[in-house]
Design a protein that fits this description.
Blueprint lengths: L2 H12 L1 E2 L2 E2 L1 H7 L3 H36 L8 H29 L2 H34 L1 H6 L3 H23 L6 H27 L16 H32 L5 H26 L1 E3 L2 E2 L2
Antiparallel strand pairs: 1-2, 3-4
Helix pairs in contact: 2-10, 3-4, 3-10, 4-5, 4-10, 5-7, 5-8, 8-9, 9-10
Length: 296
């Protein structure tokens, strides 16, 4: 490799942006974590990208039906959250594409742009999943309040909440160039873990509680819908908690100046189940068993 290429590669590995190092840039090139990132990028292209396109296509078809039929049901909160998280995922795919391109072209600014987009997706996923957990919490724990939020006032609150997710995610990306970025990540991850655990465990406690006609608590008499809801909430709780705990681990390693590339690479792969939760549940609600095929 020429001296010029070596110098460019070194600047990409160790470049500081406003005196703040980017661990992601080093780990994206250093082995063996680089293989983990590129494998994750390929998985995003082959799995997440088609899934997002399919969901947006379904959403567009529903929107057309609602325009042509005034009596059609309005969009549910969960579907709305799913559409937004799909758009956020597409931004992440674009970010990884730019990062991968920058590694081969040794273009620092391109890498920085991709890094910011990928970071935006990282924060957006967390915040949007918090909204879904809060939505389920209200639906199960406070059903009367939840029903009142299905009015126009509730839709406005939902839209404002989604807008806050986008603003907070952009704000966190803006903090990447500050010295408090890692500390803010710890605060964000800890807060997310507490909120997700509280909401999910509260819902699970209600689901396992025997109903009015089942005071004996016989598990065999629990309805199939409650069993399905229990499994879904449990899966979401495990996936989100594991992601938060693992990312907290590598953030603490980064603060302590330890070598965190391998841990960070594993953490990126733990983002994959989080990326799949809402889209897969959306397809399940829509009755889609395969790409473009609807179950009868």
């Amino acid at each position: 490799m020429s001296d010029n290429s070596s110098s460019s590669s070194d600047s990409l590995l160790h470049r500081n942006h406003s005196s703040v190092s980017l661990p992601f840039s080093v780990c994206f090139i250093a082995r063996p974590s680089s293989f983990m990132y590129f494998a994750y990028f390929i998985t995003q292209i082959l799995l997440i990208l088609p899934l997002c396109i399919l969901i947006l296509h379904q959403g567009f078809q529903r929107w057309q039906q609602q325009r042509s039929n005034a009596a059609a049901a309005s969009m549910s909160n969960l579907d709305c959250f799913t559409y937004h998280i799909v758009i956020i995922e597409l931004i992440g795919v674009l970010g990884l594409s730019l990062c991968s391109t920058a590694v081969f072209t040794l273009h620092v600014r391109t890498f920085w742009a991709g890094y910011c987009l990928f970071a935006f997706t990282w924060y957006g996923e967390l915040f949007m999943n918090i909204l879904t957990c809060v939505e389920r919490f209200l639906a199960v724990i406070h059903p009367v309040t939840y029903l009142t939020l299905r009015s126009e006032r509730g839709i406005r609150i939902r839209n404002v909440s989604i807008g806050c997710v986008w603003m907070f995610s952009l704000g966190e990306v803006g903090l990447l160039t500050t010295s408090i970025s890692a500390q803010m990540d710890i605060v964000v991850l800890t807060s997310c873990l507490v909120i997700i655990s509280f909401c999910s465990l509260s819902v699970l406690s209600v689901l396992i509680r025997p109903g009015p006609g089942n005071q004996g608590g016989d598990r065999k008499s629990v309805s199939q819908s409650k069993q399905k809801a229990f499994f879904t909430i449990s899966l979401i709780l495990v996936v989100l908690s594991l992601r938060c705990v693992w990312n907290l681990t590598w953030t603490f390693l980064f603060v302590s100046k330890a070598n965190q590339c391998l841990v960070m690479g594993c953490g990126v792969w733990l983002n994959l189940p989080t990326s799949l939760v809402l889209p897969v549940l959306f397809l399940q609600r829509s009755g889609i068993s395969g790409f473009g095929k609807t179950t009868k």
